[in-house]
Amino acid sequence: MEPTARELFNRIMRYEPVDRMPVMHWGGWPETNTRWYAEGLPKDADQARFFNASYIGHGVGIEHGLFPRFEEEVLEQDAESKVIRMGDGVTARFWKDKSCIPKYMDFTLKGAQGWDEYKKRLQPDPARIPPNHDEVIAQALASGAPVSIGTGSMVGWIRDWMGVENLAYLAYDDRELLAEMVMTITDLVVWSLEQVLPKVKPDLGWGWEDICFRTGPLVSPDIFAEVAVPGYRKIADTLAKYGVDLYLVDCDGKIDALIPHWLDGGVNVMFPVEIGAWQADPMAMRKRYGKALRVYGGINKLEIAKGRAAIDAEIKRRLPLMRDGGCVPLPDHLVIPETSLDNYRYYLDRIRSLRI
Hints:
356 residues; alpha/beta; TIM Barrel; 14 helices
């Protein structure tokens, strides 16, 4: 019997011998799906099953964000857009006919202003555990995909809640308050892990940040090390107490300056390692940090759109890292609308046919 994607993922990330890569499907943008529907993807299809692939992960965590969330309200709308006060307290304009970053207009959290209200919504509560949680765990274990547990966000959530500019001022004007925000989130995440990990051992913790852009992080690396690394370490230690030794953080953009701090905090899987305009090099990261650093991603999504020759060249470029271990290939973000269904299927077939 062939190994499941979950089995391969775990062997690869622990540098155990394998002869192939798992075939993982993350997905595409809504516009990508619209194109694929026109090219033969059934609208009601389970996409991973259609592509004979596995989803990138199946979570077993419980609610560890704002609880309860703020009441969502549509403040205005026209034919092209609508302004919404969202469940995280942020007011933003969204466009109706395209996928893009919304225009952020106002924030409930502005440093000390509003923090008490957010802090109240970041406390442990048994109601955070869904009544069907045992069923969720069973589905995850039966999925054949890597099983993950959410580990929140040390800075990315705060950036979302208050905006980049407000975060920048807070980091310099009141670092003590920023550290309190991070530790409030950390303590809630640790509580949530303690509710779940006695019942099931996932393969990895899965955090989120998205605090980098094309030239580097949106927060000073030194400040990040000071306020965020203690939170990461506390979460990593909790995961390790229950035998979970893989800890992933999802961060787009040029992450290079934050990698050493993540490693210091116990994070050892980087996702999705965007190649981007800055030409990130996963192999160079491995040479610098050794096998302590693992990669989940690292396939330039733009190359998949260019056709078979480009796909072959991109996979060949990443083969040394795959053979080195600790690397599971995946497009470095959602598949772009310029990618035909045929090209995407060819990419998956090439991964499927690899023998390491």
